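Support request from a user on the community tier.

User writes: "When I paste my structure tokens into the form, the page sometimes reloads and wipes my input. The last time it worked, I copied everything first. Here is what I submitted, just in case something in the input itself triggers the reload:"
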């Protein structure tokens, strides 16, 4: 017999919302693919994609000569709109995650680092803002 204090009824799943979320996720990965290809064409070595740590996720980690590059990829209808989506708390999260990543390397937190923002518009246009934020 079921408990008379039954759990609250489940909310019906909004399939349109789920579909939008899946489309946004796929679109973000396509943007990361485009940005990674641009960096590789410039001679950078891709080390990690969607690297997760307790501090958060870093979209791309690359090596550019002796420098580790931590890249936040933002996609929007325009590159200007994508730029507006990067906020200070996110930059801080990426910085903390980068330090965790560097702790696994021989140079530790003394590793030379750069933080880039890669802005992707809906047509696939890319602006890479090298050293766009400090941490």
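"...and here is what came back when it finally went through:"
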């Amino acid at each position: 017999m079921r408990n008379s204090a039954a759990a609250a009824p489940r909310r019906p799943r909004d399939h349109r919302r789920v579909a939008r979320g899946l489309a946004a996720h796929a679109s973000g990965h396509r943007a990361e693919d485009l940005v990674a290809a641009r960096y590789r064409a410039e001679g950078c070595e891709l080390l990690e994609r969607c690297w997760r740590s307790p501090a958060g996720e870093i979209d791309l980690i690359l090596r550019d000569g002796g420098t580790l590059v931590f890249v936040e990829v933002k996609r929007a209808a325009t590159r200007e709109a994508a730029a507006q989506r990067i906020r200070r708390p996110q930059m801080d999260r990426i910085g903390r995650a980068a330090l965790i990543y560097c702790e696994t390397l021989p140079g530790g937190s003394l590793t030379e680092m750069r933080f880039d923002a890669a802005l992707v518009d809906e047509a696939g246009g890319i602006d890479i803002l090298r050293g766009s934020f400090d941490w």
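Agent notes: The reload is a front-end session timeout and is unrelated to the input. The two ends are 58 Å apart (CA to CA). Helices lie at 15-41, 79-83, 88-102. Escalated to web team.
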